[in-house]
Amino acid sequence: MSSSVPNKIPAAGLAVRGFTVSYPGRAEAVGPIALSVPQGAICSVIGPSGCGKSTLLRAAAGLLGAYEGEIAFGGQPLAGSGAVIGLVPQNYGLLPWKTAEANITTALGIARPGLGRREKREAAARWLGLMGIGELADRYPARMSGGQQQRVAVARAFALEPDLLLLDEPFSALDALTREALQERFLANWEAYPATALFVTHDVEEAILLGGIIAVLPPSGAGSPLLLDNPVSGLAPGERRTSAVFFEMTRTVRKAMADLW
Ligand SMILES: Nc1ncnc2c1ncn2[C@@H]1O[C@H](COP(=O)(O)OP(=O)(O)OP(=O)(O)O)[C@@H](O)[C@H]1O
Ligand SMILES: [Mg+2]
After folding, report:
1. Most CB atoms within 10 A, among 34, 127, 214, 261?
2. Whose alpha carbon is nearest atom 5 of ligand 1?
3. Does some domain include residue 106?
4. Could you tell me the residue range of the domain that residue 90 belongs to?
5. Is the pLDDT confidence value at 59 over 90?
6. What's the pLDDT tens digit per position in 155-178?
7. Is ligand 1 within 6 A of the CB of residue 30?
8. Ligand 1 near 50 CB (within 6 A)
9. Is the CB of 225 under 6 A from ligand 1?
10. Residue 243 domain flag
């Protein structure tokens, strides 16, 4: 990792600088990606397929072997910072040999080793309930729908009460009504536990509804992301969808996409 500009890393929040990945067998590198997210803010990340969104989230979660550039959290390299990270991978990332409940208690056992068995089970039950799938606690992933697996993955990430939340299209497999309900639930959860969050989505309205900042990523190799402050995030969640500023922001983001992609 480069350390050429350590003095510029902000003391709080997430900072990504010059993030570039060369996959074996792929001619062009992914990136470069630069963005910064203040502590406790949600950054919606929107970008064309293949631009490197999942690659960035995997790297931030410590799941990618090698990359160039810096990913810092709270002023120090994220790896080794001790930050608790909640990841919802694009493919849900559930352990197939464990039930919904055990997927959550296992993750809690790793991230929060001080918790007792009963506390972990209670946390699992509570978060599965909040995601509307409390009755699936004993179900294995192979016997759940994609949307149900996705909700287990979101419940698992929130149950950790993480410092950094990384969500890779977490609501993509849900029907419109369940999705809207879980967007509201997500905001309520986040208000209760305001983790710094990267929320990847292909849905412009979802990006605007949830993000305090919106990062519009260009295709890989085509320049830097555009970071937009989102005035909609200043409104109460219940008022966002119908506000004039929401429609104005929709136009702004669509124009940025048209310009960058
Ligand atoms: N393990 C890998 N080996 C080689 N190339 C990879 C690997 N993983 C991803 N890539 C390539 O890197 C690029 C970025 O992939 P990534 O999954 O990060 O894109 P994305 O922005 O998440 O796309 P999508 O919106 O489709 O999920 C793509 O061109 C992809 O084919
Ligand atoms: Mg992806």
Report:
1. 214
2. 23
3. yes
4. 85-162
5. yes
6. 999 999 999 999 999 999 999 999
7. yes
8. yes
9. no
10. no
